[in-house]
Amino acid sequence: MSRGDPAALHSVKANGITLACRAWGPVDAPPVVLLHCRGADGGDWTHIAERLAASPRPRRVYAPDLRGHGRSDWPGDYRAEAMSDDVHALLCALGLDSADVVGHSLGGIVAYLLAQRHPGVVRRLVLEDVCAPVPLDPPRPPAERPAGELPFDWAMVRAADAQRNAPDPVWWDHMDRITMPTLVIGGGPTSPIPQDQVAQLAGLIPAATLVTVDAGHLVHESRPEEFLAVVREFLDR
């Protein structure tokens, strides 16, 4: 990937598929990877990425489209574990030994699975409004597909709902493998994510700090300045 136009998409072969990925900032700056929520793509992070890349301590920022989203491949297997393996392979393809990783919602699940399964590649971890991997009771009912073309594979939605309803117990059991400094950001009472479960997630991770920004589920979009302030302070330690 060249430095080039920060709005341009680059294609990277990783884990047997092609991932679309955006990049911002100096190529020799400390790397950070931003992972989007379900139904979005890497462009969701543009405002945050531009600010991180141009901050007084600039970062090299990467924001891939997760499999089944945007311009990345839609291969049919949408387990969160496969997505975490994609990100690991992406880091290898980019020649990065490690990076800071920020994940929102589904991207946060992918991020903490990456940290569990490949802890050496994650220097610091940020989880934005992500709940603990507890089964939903009652389960989430099947979602109804919207009409028309979608910017993501609807099979991915079904797969994500299935894992949200009944997450693998290993996800819970392996939280103690996340030993790197971790920042958990809750969206507060207006978020549809139960904030007691966000706090529960922070309690499961040995080196986690919980911060609440009363912004709802889309913290980085609704309160970008507050989000950037807490994330920069954490990453720059």
Shape: globular
SS class: alpha/beta
Task: Report the portion of residues in β strands.
Answer: 15-25%
Largest beta sheet: what is the strand line-up? Answer: 1-2-4-3-5-6-7-8
Looking at CATH, the homologous superfamily is Alpha/Beta hydrolase fold, catalytic domain
Q: Roughly what percent helix?
A: 25-40%
Amino-to-carboxy terminus distance:
28 Å
- The count of strands amounts to 8
The CATH topology, please? Rossmann fold
Describe this structure in words.
By secondary structure, this protein is α/β, with parallel strands linked by helices. The chain has a single domain (10-235), classed as Alpha/Beta hydrolase fold, catalytic domain (Rossmann fold). 33% of the residues lie in helices and 19% in strands. The protein contains eight helices and eight strands. The protein has helices at 46-54, 80-93, 106-117, 154-165, 169-173, 195-204, 219-222, 224-235, and strands spanning 10-14, 17-24, 31-35, 60-64, 99-104, 122-128, 182-186, 208-212. Strands 1-2-4-3-5-6-7-8 form an eight-stranded mixed sheet, with helices on both faces. Strand 7 (182-186), helix 6 (195-204) and strand 8 form a beta-alpha-beta unit. The radius of gyration is 16 Å and the shape is globular. The model is unreliable at 1-5 (pLDDT under 50).
